[in-house]
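G., before I forget:
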Amino acid sequence: MSDPTPNPPSDRHRLVVVGAGFAGLQLVKSLGHDKRLAIQLIDRRNHHIFQPLLYQAATSILPPSQIAWPIRQLTRKYPNVTTVLAEVASVDAIARQVRLAGGASLAYDTLVIATGVTHAYFGHDDWAAFAPGLKTLEDATQIRRRILLGFERAEAEPAAAEAHLTFVIVGAGPTGMELAGTIAELARTHLPDEFRNIDTRRARVLLIEAGPTILPTFDPSLAAYALRALVELGVEVRTGEAVTACNADGVVTSAGPIAAHTVIWAAGVEASPAATWLGLAGDRVGRSPAAPNLTAPGFPDVFVIGDTASVTWREGTLVPGIAPAAKQQGAYVARVVRARLDGRPPPPPFRYRHQGSLATIGRNRAIIDFGDIKLKGFLAWWLWGAAHIYFLITARSRLAVTWNWIWAYARNEPAARLITGPITPDEG
Amino acid sequence: MSDPTPNPPSDRHRLVVVGAGFAGLQLVKSLGHDKRLAIQLIDRRNHHIFQPLLYQAATSILPPSQIAWPIRQLTRKYPNVTTVLAEVASVDAIARQVRLAGGASLAYDTLVIATGVTHAYFGHDDWAAFAPGLKTLEDATQIRRRILLGFERAEAEPAAAEAHLTFVIVGAGPTGMELAGTIAELARTHLPDEFRNIDTRRARVLLIEAGPTILPTFDPSLAAYALRALVELGVEVRTGEAVTACNADGVVTSAGPIAAHTVIWAAGVEASPAATWLGLAGDRVGRSPAAPNLTAPGFPDVFVIGDTASVTWREGTLVPGIAPAAKQQGAYVARVVRARLDGRPPPPPFRYRHQGSLATIGRNRAIIDFGDIKLKGFLAWWLWGAAHIYFLITARSRLAVTWNWIWAYARNEPAARLITGPITPDEG
C-alpha cells in the first residue's frame, strides 16, 4: 500500500491532530486559516459526534444524522486541512511519525492527541456483549434496538413480559440518569397507545450506582432534586449497589440478580492509548499526564488534550470530561502553536474556566449548576435545551433538532424509533 | 414459547395482514375503524418504508428515519389493529393459520398477503455480496457506506483512485437512474471541496442496462430526455450490455471487465413467497396469480396484493410495481371485505387507475408521464418533489424532508453522510 496521504510541502509546519472530537475539532478550527500550517486531522470515523445528545439517539428521540456530521464537511472551508479516515496504530515520537493501521505513516512537526475515552468494564470485558456502553453511533443504534426489542418481545410473549420490560442502567452520572429518564418516559408517555397485549407503563427502569449518591459531580441539593424527579418518572434508583456480573439474563448486583432484557453500561471510562503510544504512565483510567501547557511530559512537540489527558483543575481535582473543557483545551493549544510559529513567548499555563454543569431528567425537568447560581425544574430544562441547540455544530442540525424535540413533546412521536438489524431473539 | 399474540375474541372477524408496505398499510387504514374486525398486521420489520425515496437514503441525501416510521405508530389510533413483529414461515390455508418463525401460529378468517418483492440475481445469489440491492434500510445504509468509502479510499490511495471512484449501477429502471444521477451529483457538486488528494469530479458513474433502452416503461421521448440529462450529469449510460459476473474487483459485462469499488444492483426483482405458501405456480419472477377480485385462485378468503401479486392491467400488461398501484389494491380489498361483512354483493373486479409515472435525474430535472400529458425538466422536478412530499406518511417527515432538500440544494450539505460500521478494506 502506498503512503495514504502524501505529506505536505516541507515549507509548511506539519501539524497532525488525532481525533476529531470536541478538542481536536476546536483546535483545527482555530488554526484552519493559518497558512503557515499543513494540518492533517485523523479520525477512525468519518463523522464528529455531538456526545451530549448521543443518549437521545440511543433512545430514538433523535436520528443519528442530527447529532453527527462528516468531518470533511466541517473542515472543508480550511484549504490547509486534510481529513484522514484511518486508525492510528502507534506514535514514533523519536522519528516524529504517526503510524496508521495498514502500515502507512504520517510525519509531523507538532502532534496533538485528542482521542478521548471509551467505556470500561473494570477488567470484565466479557460484560460488553450483555451491557453495551454508549460512545459511538453504532453503540447508540444497538442500544436503541435493544430497548425497542424489549417492548416487542414483551408484546409477543406477555407471560414473560417482566424481564423483557426491565431496563437496567449501570452508573448514575449524567448519561446514566438521562438514559434512565428517557426510557421511563418512552414507556410511560410515548408507547402505551401502541401495544395491545402489554401495558408499557409497567416497565421497570432501574438506575444502579455503586457509589453513595447519584450525580456526584453536582451540588447535593441539585442531585437530590434529580433523584426526586427520577422517582416521579418511575425510575427505581439504587445507590450503594455494585454490579458483580452481567450475563444473558441480566445483571447480578450486591443485592442479588435482576432479570433484564436490556442492560446499558454508563459506569466507567477508560482513556484511549495516548499514554501508551508515548510510553508514559497513565493514571487510574489510563489518562496521559499533561504538563501545564498541555504537552505530554518529555515531549515538547506533542500535546495531549480532551478526555484522554489528565489535566489538573483546582484543589487536586481534574478538569471534567465535558465538551466545554475539551474545546477550551483545543483553543489553548492553538494559541501555543501560533505563539511558537510567531516566535513569541508562550501563553500562560492552561486554566480551565468552568461554565457550569447541566443535566436533564425527562421532559420539563433539568438541573444546572453554575456554581453561585443553581437552577432546577422547568426553567433549567428550557436553558438546557437552548444551550444544546446553540452548541450544535451546524445550522441544519439546530433546526432539525428543535423541530424533532417539538414534535416528540407535542405529538409523542420520537423521530427515529427504528429497529435495524435482525429481530431474532438470540442476537439481541 | 407461548402463543405470541393471543387471538382476539372469536365474535370478531379475524383479519390477518402480512406485510406493512403500501398495500398492507392502506388496507389496514381503510378497515382500522371497523369494529367488527380484529386485525393483526404482521411485518418482520418494525417500520414501514417509503420506498420511492429509499435511493436518497442510500446516497446520504436523507436520513433513514425520515423515510421510515414505526408501524405501531402508524396504526396506534386504530384500537382493533394489533401489530406483530415477526417473520412468517408458512401459511396453512386448510387450517386457516399463519405460521410464524419460532413456531407460533395466528388463526385467520381472512388473510391478506402483501409481502412485496426482493432483488434477484437471476440465479447468481453469490453476486449479492459484491452488488447489493436496495430494498431495506439496512441495504440503504450499506450502499451509503460503500459509496462514501469509495471516495475515502481514493483519497487515501490516490494512485489507485480510478477503481475506488468507479460506481456501477446495474439496471436502468427509475431506481437505477435515480441512484446514478444522485451519485454523479454527489461527486460533482457536493464533495469536490472536501478532498485534497483527489478530484471527486473525476468519478465514473456507469449505468449498465441489458435491454435496448433505459426506462422502458416510460414514453420514448421522456426516456430520451432522461438519457441526455444523465449524460450531462456525467453518467456513462451503456444499454444492450449484460452483466455476466460480479466479484470483488467489480463487474464483468458482455463488453469486458470494469474495475469498480461500488456496484449496486437495480436490475431485477423476485416476488416474496406468497405463491409458494399457497402452493400456487408463480409467474416468471415468482408472483402469485390473482383472481379479478384479488383473491388467490382457489382461496376465496386469501387475498394477494401489491408487488407479490401478478395482476392484469391492459393489453396483457401487468399492474406496475409502484406505490399508487399497491395502495389501490389495499383499498379495493378493504371494500371487498366490508361488502362480505355487510352481506352486500361484491364490488366489481379490481381495475387499476394509472395516475402517471415519475422519475428524477439529479436536481432540476425530472420526467413525468401522465399518459396524455408528458412533462420534463424543471417544472417536472418541482412536481416530482411536491408529489413525494405530499405522499410522505407523516407531517413530521414532510417538513423534515422539505427542509433537508432545501439544505442539500442551497448549501450542498446532504443530511446524512455517515459511514457506520467498520472502515477496514476487507469488509466492503
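Chain A has two domains: 13-44+86-119+269-342, 125-267+357-420. The longest strand of chain A covers residues 37-43.

More on Monday.
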